[in-house]
Amino acid sequence: MRFLYIFGITLIPYLLLTAGSGQVLLFWSAEELIVGVALSLIFGGIISSVIIPRNVLVDVINPFKWILATFYMIGPFFLSLLIANIEVMYRIISGRINPAIVRVETGLNSVTGAYFLANSITLSPGTLTIDMDVENHDLYIHCLNWKKEEGQPAEPRDVALFSYFWMKLIYG
Question: What are the φ/ψ torsions at residue 99 (nearest 5 degrees)?
Fold first, then answer.
């Protein structure tokens, strides 16, 4: 089932991108269909067995989580990205930079939520996810401006307030 899902996800974009170039079903040539199916079989096999962990794929298939994640990307993530860009611009102009590498205990139960949070943090200017502890979902993050004193524990809201709230809501 997992392989078929990945096979379909890789074949559909290929067919959409190559539509209108052949005679089969008025959209594709036979060669394009053969190449598309072959590539999708290869990528489906590699991705389903090596790249994507099994528990991540279960979260990805859920359509309710897709809807919430899409809403998150359009609204709150875009807003936090805008705020982060303005803050980084201010930090560069003013020279008020206090870089640090911190360990953030996310408390997320889902590996998918931890991956999504790590990517959201990395995409925001001024922060970079360096590593993730897969067992307990802790993130190691480089921050351009760290406001807490040394020795104080880092919390998810310190580096990703909007992102953490939404990851907790979507993935628990």
Answer: -70, 150
The pTM assigned to this predicted structure is 0.66
The structure tokens 């008020």 sit at 96
List all residues 6 or more positions away from 91 whose beta carbon is below 8 Å from its beta carbon. Answer: 97, 126, 144, 145
Q: Quick one: which H or E segment has residue 94?
A: helix 76-94
Q: Rounded to the nearest 10 degrees, how much is the dihedral formed by the CA atoms of 55, 58, 63, 67?
A: 10
Please report, for the chain, the start and end positions of each structural domain, with discontinuous segments joined by +.
2-52, 68-171
Q: Which residue has the tokens 């919390």?
A: 155
The residue type of 133 is D
Q: Give the closest residue to 161 by CA, choosing from 110, 94, 87.
A: 87
Are the CB atoms for 103 and 131 separated by under 8 Å?
no
Whose structure tokens read 């360096």? 130
Rg (alpha carbons) of the chain, rounded to whole number: 20
Q: Closest Cα to residue 130, out of 154, 102, 105?
A: 102
Q: In what order do the strands lie in the sheet with 138-143?
A: 100-105, 138-143, 127-133
Query: For 69-88, how does the pLDDT look when each residue is reduced to its tens digit (9 = 90+)?
Result: 888 888 888 888 888 889 88
DSSP conformational letter for 48: I
CB atoms within 10 A of CB 120: 23
